[in-house]
Each structure stands twice: as C-alpha cells, then as structure tokens.
Write a structure and sequence with these properties.
Length: about 90
C-alpha cells in the first residue's frame, strides 16, 4: 500500500506529505477544530442570537449543529443556555 502511494505522489512532488509527523499533527488540528473550536463558536453564536435569528440563519446554524454534533455533545453538560428569567424588584 505504501509503495503504491509513493508511486502516485512522486509525479506531483508530494513526497513530503507522507511524513507521519505532518499527518498526525494535521489530524490533531482538524480533530481539535471539529470537537472543540467550532462547537464552542456555535454555542456562543446561538446563545447571543437566539431571539433575533432569521429563518435562513437558523436553518444554517441547525445544519452546523447536526454536522458538529459530537463536539456539541461534549460541551452540552457544562454549558447553560437557558434564558434569564424576569428579574424581580
């Protein structure tokens, strides 16, 4: 398998892309963005714009929630997105 990969990458000059350190670090960066960065941004966005979102924005955000669901599940127990009640004087 490895020799077939090398044969296909040599004409494109992509031999450096076979380096395992680069591969593992790119997996770590992409996994961190998928599980940590984007879900936290989605929670922040939904918390700030929940009452003023339009139909298309809400549809787009729900699609992103579906796409990044594993990361959303990781943070769901720790975040409180309930609306503030009416304050009594």
């Amino acid at each position: 398998m490895f020799s077939i990969l090398i044969v296909f990458l040599i004409p494109f000059g992509l031999m450096g892309a076979v380096n395992p350190i680069i591969t593992l670090s790119s997996y770590a960066v992409l996994g961190g963005m998928y599980l940590l960065v984007v879900p936290l941004f989605l929670f922040y966005w939904m918390n700030n714009r929940w009452n003023v979102m339009g139909k298309l924005e809400r549809l787009f955000i729900y699609g992103l929630v579906f796409l990044f669901f594993p990361g959303m599940v990781l943070f769901a127990p720790f975040l409180n997105l309930r609306m503030n009640g009416k304050e009594e004087f």
